[in-house]
Known about the structure:
The chain is α+β, with helices and mostly antiparallel strands.
Amino acid sequence: xxxxxxxxxxxxxxxxxxxxxxxxxxxxxxxxxxxxxxxxxxxxxxxxxxxxxxxxxxxxxxxxxxxxxxxxxxxxxxxxxxxxxxxxxxxxxxxxxxxxxxxxxxxxxxxxxxxxxxxxxxxxxxxxxxxxxxxxxxxxxxxxxxxxxxxxxxxxxxxxxxxxxxxxxxxxxxxxxxxxxxxxxxxxxxxxxxxxxxxxxxxxxxxxxxxxxxxxxxxxxxxxxxxxxxxxxxxxxxxxxxxxxxxxxxxxxxxxxxxxxxxxxxxxxxxxxxxxxxxxxxxxxxxxxxxxxxxxxxxxxxxxxxxxxxxxxxxxxxxxxxxxxxxxxxxxxxxxxxxxxxxxxxxxxxxxxxxxxxxxxxxxxxxxxxxxxxxxxxxxxxxxxxxxxxxxxxxxxxxxxxxxxxxxxxxxxxxxxxxxxxxxxxxxxxxxxxxxxxxxxxxxxxxxxxxxxxxxxxxxxxxxxxxxxxxxxxxxxxxxxxxxxxxxxxxxxxxxxxxxxxxxxxxxxxxxxxxxxxxxxxxxxxxxxxxxxxxxxxxxxxxxxxxxxxxxxxxxxxxxxxxxxxxxxxxxxxxxxxxxxxxxxxxxxxxxxxxxxxxxxxxxxxxxxxxxxxxxxxxxxxxxxxxxxxxxxxxxxxxxxxxxx
Length: 645
């Protein structure tokens, strides 16, 4: 790997452009995100209300202001629930709960807060990363994924804590909104876990690939893709530049300016400034700040990263940000905008030979969901290999060869266990007729809390999760029945030149959400030996890597974090025959850096030696990106490709 500085900028003695006398205008940030109301105040715990605009101010964030604001909120992470108006919300009494910080009634200061350190300001050194070897690419990709997984884990737990606080106080307030995305970013910055802060990278960010999708704006800052939490133009200021000129490194195109034009490979990007709080252009823009940085980047031929932000129904925030690759700024000019005020415009042209734009893939997947045969008239073998067994159809697509193999098997919706397994079902269950909470019988079996949030997102991986089952009184809509409700996304089994058969979703899969069960016919060891002698290949669940332990792993935040060990199960001493009956999970490819984890779950019986193998997303998985599992160390008897291809 070579990390070379950008060619030093020469000092330019160009004549100063003729100045147009306009009132001084502060650059206007991009429109606030979906949870931010400029006219309302947030009230975290018992902290004083602070305007959301101030919280997200770029200057405050860079100078530590917003983080000083959050220092008052850190006690939220020291107690599972906060004090408010003199009333104390009682925490869960679960010694194995492993919330963000395990607490007691008199807990005041956590190890996490004690480990906090001063924020490191962003580097002013511009560099370009080139000539990465495959092992370097893998290293940075793993680092990127682990960082996102920690961010998502913290965000989900923070959201849950806010929800619990609000419920205790009588429901959510109009001015109190859960902002787990900000809290997670704050915690990670306090512990020095934001990526690429030591250098300011021009061009591609190591570990980030075109098409990566982000649901919250702060994620972009955490991974180093776009360093400002609100402004649409990220740039190195003139006072930090070696030649005294600002240089732009990335932009977010979210359609926040009425004069923007977006044709995909070509963007007419409107500069910043001159808008009121309703995003209306009311004043002239000036060639300063981010606008000047874009003009200087054009002059020096420096490319910028482009992230597109837009509303998306499949997102938990209602919006997504997609990295669409590198663009060159080819033109800039001053023009009269639609509102009659002067604006600066920049023509951005996408550099050739890059992967397809993630935003284009999102639109393509959306059309496939409703008009598959019209969009791709050739290649579809079946529009539902599950034959209506799943909640949503499972497509079968092959435009490479004539292989139709997945259509020839019986689709197995749920795992088939030997009859003796159900002898352990004792008929006991919870009595929560209105839905389960953390005091229900099934929650107690999980260590005192439920495994999922209100949206069905896995809070933390465990050796096994107990869901409510057929002997429970709670309704089918209970939040503790996530994995038994079936698939929620539209999937496609497809033929790949690299991995044989693979699986991808036509929908966005949010990190921590349920995907499907890995089904098969369960065999005891004795049965497995007979099947193997007859030439049948089997899946051995004990070989699956324990990736569940990575989901919710807070060891980088909490020095006292201990990997969950309760509830515990014995080693999975059984095999699964998928040679004749299988489901879509059997076609997922192996990866040592997977985006899907295997989580053991029990619900229809209590035999801990024979859990269901449920699959959950380890990250936000964009539509049409291949799903992968870590099958451990595959050999002739356990390799997925040997069985399903």
